[in-house]
Amino acid sequence: MPLIDGGSRITNYIVEKRESTRKAYSTVTTNCQKCSFRIPNLAEGCEYYFRVLAENEFGIGEPAETAEPVRASEAPSPPESLNIMDEQMMLPEFDLRGIYQKTVIAKAGDNIKIEIPVLGRPRPTVTWKKEDQILKQTQRVNYENTATATILTINECTRSDSGQYPLTAKNIVGEVSEVITVQVHDIPGPPTGPIKFDEISSDFWTKPEYNGGFKITGYTVEKRDLPNGRWLKANFSNILETEFTVSGLTEDAAYEFRVIARNAGGAVSQPSEPSDAITCRDDIEAPKIRVDAKYKDTLVLKAGEVFRLEADVSGRPPPSMTWTKGEKELEDTAKLEIKIADFSTVLINKDSSRRDGGAYTLTATNPGGFAKHIFNVKVLDRPE
User: Fold this and answer.
1) Is 286-380 the same fold as 90-185?
2) How far is CA 105 from CA 111, 157, 184, 279, 312, in A?
3) What's the number of CA atoms in the CB half-sphere (13 Å) around residue 131?
4) If one looks up domain 192-279 in CATH, what number appears?
5) pLDDT per position as a tens digit, 244-260
6) CB of 170 within 8 A of CB of 150?
7) Kindly report the CA angle at 113 between 110 and 119, in degrees rounded to 5?
8) Beta partners for residue 170, in sequence order
9) Which residues form the Fibronectin type-III domain (predicted)?
């Protein structure tokens, strides 16, 4: 039997003979199923050469023949090792059909085993890297190359095992490279502290440096009474942004705050570093309204023109604002547009007519009180 079968099972053998005085071989059998065959009808005393060829589904191999002639009166010695040389060569190739999008996802603490079939003749040499460095093999992280595959093993994977793992297969025909991405999902890191306060009732923080492999979906704020209070939840709905206004605090009491992140995988981070001690004090400032000097006098315009009434408003907390004309509160219409921001507002009236003239009152209100400013408008039009 040949040492190399050409990559396909041997289906049969062809046995041929020739007399030592002739150059041409004649076929004895084309369907020998075993590694031995009795040849009939040999002329006694004649010397013969014999040769054997192996056949598989891709064709017939090179012959192996006896080195010396055999006299028919003698039992021939058995053939020496018959080798059909496999001259077929193939560029290396990785079979990645078993790895979806060349990405392997695991939870922290799991064992990862990546087995990739390797094709190529002669058998390729396979090497692995982590990012752009040769993969350092340890008891926890190592790879093994078998006759048909390469196997990467990562035991008790951690967040640091995430990344790209390039692998290369090389033989005398050439080389091929692929990249496998490993994602290790873990709990997110804690939000970055310390928590900063730019208002006595609001706290701000920054997102975690690591999201655990999933998008951050919300935060929980906890507060603690000083000096000996327990940590308690300060929010009762999901916090999406990195800021939150804490209510229900006691004036002159001292507190610490911390934040916990949660990701789309349902994992919860460790708490952030606590804030510095914060003493809660009411900080209320009554509203004030500031307008341009042109609004101190009556604003005069012609019918059909547009007029704008603008004002800046201050106060703590930010005041609420309303516009009225007479006793009626004004609202947005196709003709009248009202814009209100935290600390400014503008009223725009289009295609003005005589009845749009009159007194427009802006009122700003917060817990500290209220402020008003009256804008007087006169629209000049033809007499009715």
Assistant:
1) yes
2) 11, 11, 6, 46, 54
3) 5
4) 2.60.40.10
5) 888 777 777 888 888 88
6) no
7) 165
8) 125, 175
9) 1-75, 187-283
